[in-house]
Amino acid sequence: MANLEVKNKNVYTKISCTCSTYLCHWENYSGRKALVCSAFGCTETKDLVGAHVINCSETSGSRQYITPLCKSCNSSHNSDCFKLNASAILVAVSYRSKCKPC
Ligand SMILES: [Zn+2]
Ligand SMILES: [Zn+2]
After folding, report:
1. What is the span of the domain harbouring residue 48?
2. Inside any domain, residue 66
């Protein structure tokens, strides 16, 4: 499978579910710990955030997902599509069934 390509969607809204943070929301649904940045070729393990992204292969472009990114990969300057590493997981922001504080 080809690596996912995503685009940053910078939103700074307060989290709207019961998860403590968006990174926590991602962990609840991915079943993983956020240990490393999801961007292809990036190995940053510090300062990870649950970044809002849009899947570049989806034509509507309105569905938002969370994936762990480091601060520099989550920069608002990255407005182009970029690849994620092969094991990256996207979790929809709208998921609610497994939300809980981490
Ligand atoms: Zn990164
Ligand atoms: Zn949640």
Report:
1. 5-13+20-92
2. yes
CA of 27 to the centre of ligand 1 (A): 17
In a domain, 79, yes or no: yes
**Residue 56 contacts residue 64 (beta carbons within 8 Å):** no
Per the structure, the count of domains in the chain is 1
> pLDDT tens, 67-93?
999 999 998 776 889 999 999 999 999
Using CB atoms within 10 Å of the CB of residue 47, give its burial: 0 to 12 exposed, 13 to 18 middle, 19+ buried: exposed
Residue 95 alpha carbon to ligand 2 centre in Å:
7
Band (pLDDT 50/70/90 cuts) for residue 15 is confident
49, part of any domain = yes
